[in-house]
Structures are given as C-alpha cells and as structure tokens.
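Subject: Protein entry, chain in single-letter code together with its fold tokens

Area: Proteins and the way their chains fold up in space.

Attached in line: The record itself begins immediately under this heading.
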Amino acid sequence: MEKILELLNQIAQENNFPIFYHDKTREIWITGYRENTKFDLFVKLLRDGSYKFIYEIPQERKVALFLNEDSLLIRLNKIFGKEVVEDR
C-alpha cells in the first residue's frame, strides 16, 4: 500500500488534486479534473491483500479488483502516464 500511496501523493501534488488517506480503513480517495473532465478515484486494500479500485468520470464508472500491488501500480501508470519503478 505504501508504493500506491506514494505514487498517488505525487500525482495529487503535481496536479493540485485533493487526496485523502484513511489509515484505519486503508482507503485512498482522490478527486479532480483531467482533460477538462471531473474524475473520482478510490483505492482500498482488502483484508485478503487484494485491492479494490474505482475510477469514475461522469460518463462511466470502472471497478476492478487487483490481486497485488504491482498490477494496480501498472494500471495507475496507464491512467496518469507516470513511470512506475519496480524495486524487486
């Protein structure tokens, strides 16, 4: 969860998006505008170690379940066009 939070914090700071992280429930929320379209992003670390991911714009809502952190980092990289460095 630390890598995801670090990446989303970086994205939020660079784009001046508000970000909220709730440690007890392990949830991250970001909202803002990309390409003149409002979006909401929600990530939650589930008890089994998988990640619930919701990306919503006015026209559609995408919900996904990622089994590991690396898969979610790749998706976030595709959405925000960031370079994700893996340290394996």
Observations:
- Residues 2-15 form the longest helix (14 residues).
- The chain has two helices and five strands.
